[in-house]
Amino acid sequence: MTGKFISRRAGVQVAAWAALAAASLVLAPLPAAAQYPDKPVRLILPFGAGGVADITTRLVAEKLGQKLGQRFVVENNPGAGGITAARAVLQSPPDGYTLAVLSNGTAVSVNLFKSLPFDPVKDFAPVSAMGYFDLIFVTNANGPYKTLAEFIKAAKEKPGGLNLGTIAAGSSQNLGAELFKSTAGIDVVIVPFKTSGDVLVGLERNDIQMGAEFYAALRGGLDAKKFIAVGTSGPKQAEYLPGAPTVASTVPGFEVTSWNAIFAPAGTPADVIATLNKALNEVLADPEVKKKALELGIEAKGSTPQEIQDRLKADIVKWGKVIADAKIEKR
After folding, report:
1. pLDDT per residue over 230-248, tens digit each?
2. Cα 56 to Cα 131: distance, rounded to the nearest angstrom
3. Where in the chain is the domain with CATH 3.40.190.150?
4. How far is the C-alpha of 278 from the C-alpha of 293, rounded, in Å?
5. Model's pTM, two decimal places?
6. Cβ neighbours of residue 139 closer than 8 Å, sequence gap 6 or more
7. Given this model, what pLDDT does residue 8 score?
8. Spatial distance between the Cα atoms of 52 and 215, rounded to a whole number of angstroms
9. pLDDT tens profile 93-120
10. Where are the alpha helices (DSSP H) in 188-269?
């Protein structure tokens, strides 16, 4: 009797322990999903190393890494109007670990190429703007034109007699010059050069009477008083060029603002986009980041995903018209 009783009691205890163990399995929290990011993130850049976009992206990437606790690795993948870089991103899983740096140049490419192997609006999910920057119109400090109004007046007096230099046809600088020409209602010859350095040499030699370039390329010549900044292309005066007027103050309705932004492949989880957007906006509000970007002529500024998506769509329409009006042949 005693043995049977002990055996029965032991069986009850085992059953109780088993039930308790089962209950604990049900009640125990499941292992938490890995928090994004839990491994390095790639930022694919459609520009070469050493340029303004590359320098600013690396600055932002370093700060993002510090904030989110993982490395953000910048990979330069230039070529084919951004197509090569876009393909590299879109061939990767939409998990937030491979991101693209797109720009107003992406909006240009939509209209400059006969076809693209991707749709930047449908195939990418916007994250945030990264920075905005103006085109600067400059004249030779030793030349006859000290203001934009003087250049426009001379152009109207001598149709086809003045030259405006930019880098290659279809570049942001070149299209900005085309838009300036049409908005100002003047007939000038827009001369495309191979490099920014060639534009500046042409301006010094008076082969061209005005140039259109970004601040980083012009900074040395402006500091040395070789050139005069007769107009900046944005809606307000540039902080890094105090005293330089906007083009719009002479040519109402003219505005060109270039931008860089971070996008992810379409289908990237919404919580990943939200994490990146929050971190980016915090990084871009950092005084150190703002100061270093401003030295390159860039206003470091984030956005909501919808704001940069709307900007991309608007620029596709805007530059499509400029390219059509200028009769620039599609590639």
Report:
1. 999 999 999 999 889 999 9
2. 8
3. 41-132+258-325
4. 19
5. 0.84
6. 145, 146, 151, 203, 209, 210, 211, 227, 228, 230
7. 41
8. 10
9. 999 999 999 999 999 999 999 889 999 9
10. 196-204, 215-223
The amino acid occupying position 271 is D
Mean pLDDT, the chain, rounded, equals 89
Residue that is written with structure tokens 């690396």 in the block: 58
Residues 209, 164 contacting (CB under 8 angstroms): yes
State pLDDT tens for residues 58-100.
999 999 999 999 999 999 998 777 889 999 999 999 999 999 9
Sign of CA dihedral 279, 281, 286, 289: positive
Alpha carbon 112 to chain centroid, angstroms: 18
**Cβ neighbours of residue 2 closer than 8 Å, sequence gap 6 or more:** none
The yes/no answer on whether domain 41-132+258-325 falls in CATH 3.40.50.300 is no
CATH assignment of 134-249, among 3.10.20.30, 3.40.50.2300, 3.40.190.10, 3.90.1150.10: 3.40.190.10
Cis peptide before 235 (omega within 30 of 0): no
Q: Please tell me what DSSP assigns to residue 330.
A: P
Neighbour count for residue 182 (Cβ, 10 Å): 14
Identity (one letter) of the amino acid at 89?
A: V
Amino acid at 110: V
Residue 50's pLDDT is 84
